[in-house]
Structures are given as C-alpha cells and as structure tokens.
Amino acid sequence: MPRPSISAVVVAVDYRLAPESSFPAPCNDGTTALRWVLTGGGGALPSPPATVFVMGDSAGGSVVAHHVAARLPSRVARLIALQPFAHSLRQNFVLNNKHIFKT
C-alpha cells in the first residue's frame, strides 16, 4: 500500500539567546529566517512555499514565533504555540483577524 505524502519543509531556526543577545535579537533572527524561506531559501527549496506556519515551543520560542508572525502577518497562515507563554503574558492574540492563541 502506498504511503501518503505531503510536500512540506520544516526549518528550525537557531536564534540568538539571552543573556548574550537581548530582545529583539531572537525575533530579528526568526524574521530573517522566515524571509529566507519565503524567497525559496536561496535555491535550497524547490520553490517558495504557498503556505507558511510559524511554530514556537515553550515560553521563549512562542514569544519569538508570535513576534515573527506579527511582523509578516500577510505571509503567515497560522501561529502554532506549543506550551505557550509565561503565565503573566497570557492573553488573546489576533493575526489577520483570526484568533491565533486564546487562553
């Protein structure tokens, strides 16, 4: 039986961390990486992607992912936040008039 397939590219960004690099350095790194993907990855990708999801894990990664998605909202279909945000930062976030995170 043939296996189902999906055309997808997963890019993990090794963004700068504190305390060596302060905010917004991680968000700048994420935005640079997203722009690289959106232009086809300098020839590394077969073509620029039609749909982009941005994901962050834990408090720091989710905050960076949110800021990256907010900087290029017309290019990001959805934000996926795994174990999102520190308790003090919980609130509703909207991207392209869609709730992307709600507590």
Structure characterization notes:
By secondary structure, the chain is an alpha+beta fold. It has a domain at 25-38 and 50-101. 27% of the residues lie in helices and 17% in strands. It is built from two helices and four strands, in the order H-E-H-E-E-E. A two-stranded parallel sheet has the order 1-2. It has a two-stranded antiparallel ribbon with strand order 3-4. Helix 2 links the parallel strand 1 (53-57) and strand 2. Helix 1 (25-38) packs across helix 2. The chain starts with 24 loop residues before the first helix and ends with a strand.
Task: Give a topology summary.
Blueprint lengths: L24 H14 L14 E5 H14 L6 E5 L10 E3 L2 E4 L2
Parallel strand pairs: 1-2
Antiparallel strand pairs: 3-4
Helix pairs in contact: 1-2
Mean pLDDT across every amino acid position: 82
Structural class designation: alpha+beta
Arrangement of strands in the largest sheet: 1-2
SSE sequence, one letter per element: HEHEEE
Give a count of the beta strands, DSSP E runs of length 2 or more.
4
Largest sheet: 2 strands, parallel
Uncertain regions: pLDDT < 50 for 5+ in a row?
Answer: none
Strand-residue proportion: 15-25%
Structure annotation, total helices: 2
What general form does the structure show?
Answer: globular
| Straight-line distance between termini | 42 Å
**What is the helix fraction of residues, given as a range?**
25-40%
Cα gyration radius (Å)? 15 Å
